[in-house]
Amino acid sequence: MTGVPGTARPDIAHPATYAHGVPHAEFARRRRDEPVAWVDEPLLTRHSASGRITERGRGYWAVTTHAAVQEASRRTGDFSSGRAGAFLVDPRTPADLRQTRQLLISMDAPQHVRIRRLVTSVFTPRAVGGLADGVAAHATELVRRAVRAGELDVVTDLAAELPLLVLCDLLGVPRTDRHLLYRWSNHLVGFDDPEFGGGDVDAYRRTFAEAFTYALELAAERRAHPRADLISRLAVAEVDGRRLSDREFCMFWLLLVVAGNETTRHLIAGSLSALVDDPEQRDRLVAGTVPMAAAVDELVRHVTPIMQFRRTATRDTELAGQPIAADDKVVLYYTSANRDPAVFTEPDRLDLGRNPNPHLAFGIGPHFCLGAHLARHELAALLRAILPHLPSLVRTGPEIRLESNFVNGLKSFPAQIR
Ligand code: HEM
């Protein structure tokens, strides 16, 4: 465990801490003793053509209670997504900041409202319902293959594959190119993991360039031959009477590629892991004594695949009694909010029938996750397909976790269906 220097406490800012699991006991302590508290960031090593560099972020306020995460998410005038982007790591250069601000997630009103409007209709429950047959067919086929093989890695064979296949259908990307989407998101989200991004700044930039080239070719093709997919729609979409620029289009595309596959992958893998570890809850699901919708939301809460997003204070203000200065970094820990005993009874327990379940795993406020219905839908489809085999799904080796302070992810979960 990577600790805070001079204490026995795990360092919640360090990506390596999470290789051993989310430090829930530390988050419980923070909620109790210091719900909004300053965190010094660790020194991290990066690589580039010009050699090794060490970087240290400027520190941030960690927000850990449900009430404070909710409040900061809603006070968008005080806590901005656009000022320095929605990610914990500060943009390295002014050009990086400009690029980050072209991501929907890193915009403020009114631009955020205008751009988000372009795609909201694609993600309504009704529109997602229209994808149901395709999602169910993919889930059934993946489970059928896994059962036939007997041996599987839950992460690569099931959890990664389903969102990639669904995303290809949604975006209109050939299914055979899904490994590209997989590699790009591994490199970007897994930037800190030695096996994926490895802290290599040049490789990170190359991944952007590669994904953008692909997106621009796709856009040109769809402008010439429009189809009924999301890419065709974005390629000709106009905001305030003008088309999205190439760069705006590419950033939107990349956000969908990363947000649409990585998150759901970790939700599915984390959910199956939790169910294997908790036969009592697994049996409730198999017996059909809990509604699927409630079970899915409880798994989303329990796993909380995205652990945090960031805001920046726009002025001197306060949050939960803590003074915060203009331009301070403020990090909203959904993973902690979702285990706040002030809101959830026995928060560490998986209770598939939990109701109500006001978790914040998809955020809250104007940036509420666009893909929430789709993600829930994918997990439900996979659970339905695997349900008859769930009691015979067993671990055959240790899980390997992603080194990331952003997503709660598994890289490997070796298993058998006996
Ligand atoms: C379990 C799966 C998922 C989780 C846990 C998750 C989590 C989140 C969270 C916490 C936010 C809010 C960010 C903020 O407040 O700064 C968000 C936003 C977003 N999500 Fe998801 N997400 C998931 C799946 C998806 C999927 C499947 C898609 C698309 C196909 C998607 C697309 C987006 C987009 C575009 C935004 C930005 C919305 C905005 O800024 O207005 N997400 N997501």
Describe this structure as you would to a colleague:
The chain has 418 residues and is α+β, with helices and mostly antiparallel strands. The protein has a single domain (95-304, 335-417), classed as Cytochrome P450 (Cytochrome p450). Helix content is 45%, strand content 14%. The protein is built from 16 helices and 16 strands. Strands 1-4-12-9-5 form a 5-stranded mixed beta sheet. Helix 6 (132-149) runs antiparallel to helix 8 and helix 10 (201-224) packs across helix 11. Bound molecules: protoporphyrin IX containing FE. Protoporphyrin IX containing FE is lined by residues 73, 81, 86, 104-105, 116, 255-256, 259-260, 263-264, 267, 305-306, 309, 334, 361-363, 367, 369-371, 374-375. GO terms for molecular function: cholest-4-en-3-one 26-monooxygenase activity; heme binding; iron ion binding; steroid hydroxylase activity.
